[in-house]
Design a protein that fits this description.
Elements lengths: L1 H5 L1 H15 L9 H20 L15 H23 L6 H6 L5 H29 L7 H28 L3 H14 L7 H5 L4 H8 L2 H15 L5 H25 L3 H4 L1
């Protein structure tokens, strides 16, 4: 951790590099950051909303029942998890020349991707909050809670990204395996459906697994704050704080355990 602090200037420069290079020479620039979640929202709205007749629950107390906004309030947090996972997989392997030739805290490569993605996530969440305010969500007093949830999600995903980055160095097939894992993880998270329908059909151990899946708790909390316009459940918030810092601690431990062999494996 001390080496990471000492490498803070490098972390800053790596983050700036990612920000400058992301949409360089593109016509819409950072506008592209919203096109992917908006396209997903449109596709799921047509398939599940228009064709299968899935409806959003009514926001409490916002009263919003627009399925597209319900989707977007779940797609954005999940998209951040998915983005960080993908960037974490290539954080080390994609910078092999730098890793093998320069001595520095390799964790900064992962954290720079997290910070870069957090900027993009902030833009997306800001636009979502503006739209929800226009539709009548009383989320304005809860904006600090939105920021807190974003920070916790960044901490949680940092731990996952650290583990994936080191895993991709020793097991190159991990990126293909992780594609399958994320597909399962996505559909086990209530992004495109109301979790109440699932919870009615499961009980006992599987209910606990589903209900306390970290991504489920994050999506549930983000929806409470944005779509509903109220605070998250206190138990959810407590669990997310513990899970987020536990994820980061485990990620740093695993990364530190294998970091000495990174250069020779690359």
């Amino acid at each position: 951790m001390i080496e990471i602090v000492r490498s803070r200037n490098l972390l800053w420069n790596l983050t700036l590099r990612e920000l400058r290079a992301k949409y360089r020479r593109s016509l819409l620039g950072w506008g592209w950051s919203m096109l992917n979640p908006l396209s997903q929202m449109l596709i799921y709205s047509v398939v599940f909303g228009a064709i299968f007749g899935v409806q959003a629950r009514v926001g409490d107390p916002s009263g919003i029942d627009t399925y597209g906004l319900y989707l977007l309030s779940g797609i954005l947090p999940w998209g951040f998890i998915n983005l960080i996972s993908g960037l974490g997989l290539q954080a080390l392997t994609g910078n092999a020349a730098l890793v093998t030739k320069v001595k520095f805290a390799r964790e900064t490569l992962v954290f720079s991707e997290v910070l870069f993605s957090l900027v993009q996530f902030s833009i997306e969440m800001s636009l979502l909050c503006i739209v929800l305010l226009f539709f009548g969500s009383p989320l304005l007093p809860w904006l600090p809670m939105v920021v807190l949830l974003m920070v916790l999600l960044a901490i949680f995903t940092s731990g996952i990204a650290l583990i994936l980055s080191i895993g991709a160095v020793f097991f190159r097939d991990l990126k293909y395996l992780w594609t399958i894992v994320t597909q399962i993880w996505f559909f086990s998270t209530p992004v495109i459906y109301d979790p109440a329908r699932v919870e009615e059909k499961i009980s006992g151990f599987w209910y606990s697994v589903y209900h306390w899946n970290p991504s489920t708790a994050f999506v549930r909390s983000f929806r409470h704050v944005t779509f509903d316009g109220r605070g998250p459940e206190l138990l959810d918030l407590a669990v997310l704080i513990v899970v987020s810092f536990a994820s980061l601690a485990i990620g740093l431990t695993v990364f530190g355990r294998f970091s000495r062999r990174i250069a020779e494996e690359l």
